[in-house]
Amino acid sequence: MIHYREAVRILVIEDDADLRLAVSSALRGAGFAVDAVADLPAADEALAVNAYDCAVFDRMLPSGDALGYVRARRVPAPVLFLTALDSIAHRVEGLEHGDDYLVKPFALDELIARVRTLCRLGPTMAHVPLRCGDLEMDVARHQVRRGAVLLGLTGKEFAVLEHLLAHQDRVVTRDELLAGVWDALVRPESNVLDVTLSSLRRKLGDPPVIHTVPRVGYRVLPG
């Protein structure tokens, strides 16, 4: 049985408020859903109740070195360490217990690229394209085609379409899309989903693929 993933969800653990905001904003801008916390107890709580495709840990946190936490807890997601500890010994130690190691200061574009690579290592990655009529989504390559035309979608448009395609056997509710594609910072009354759907429908073109089911939600049907 093939298990399709939901929107890619990242956990960021960073005690520096400015860096935590910068990293979270960059990842959200790249299309990820992000939960961000400041220390290990909050990370422990988040990991207990949510499934993540990748966890980004600052190493030196108020509660101690995150390396020991990751080693003891066996975090069920690929782990990227962020740290100012840049010796060869520190890098080797980090890679023994995590999946990647990025030294501060770093470029946010590089962080995003590394997170994307790590998410492909996770168990929730789709193995086959998602299709509906002449619409095809290659999740691994992050590509969508309608007919022979390659479409340029934003990260959120891609995630919304992926969720709908993965559940095309039923109607997907508005709350489900908000929970699966965005994160806790988005309020249910927000219009972000409406804006994203409007843009996505325009890019998909005619005949329509995404259909509104009044008072219920949305579903995709072959055009």
From TrEMBL:
Gene3D superfamilies: 3.40.50.2300, Winged helix-like DNA-binding domain superfamily/Winged helix DNA-binding domain. It comes from the Bacteria. GO terms for molecular function: phosphorelay response regulator activity; transcription cis-regulatory region binding. One of its GO terms (biological process) is regulation of DNA-templated transcription. InterPro entries: CheY-like_superfamily (IPR011006), OmpR/PhoB-type_DNA-bd (IPR001867), Sig_transdc_resp-reg_receiver (IPR001789), WalR-like (IPR039420), WH-like_DNA-bd_sf (IPR036388). The modification 4-aspartylphosphate is found at residue 58. Residues 127-222 bind DNA. Residues 9-119 form the Response regulatory domain. GO terms for cellular component: cytosol; protein-DNA complex. The keyword DNA-binding applies. Residues 127-222 form the OmpR/PhoB-type domain. Keywords: DNA-binding, Phosphoprotein. Pfam families: Response_reg (PF00072), Trans_reg_C (PF00486). PANTHER family: REGULATOR OF RPOS, TRANSCRIPTIONAL REGULATORY PROTEIN CUTR. This is DNA-binding response regulator.
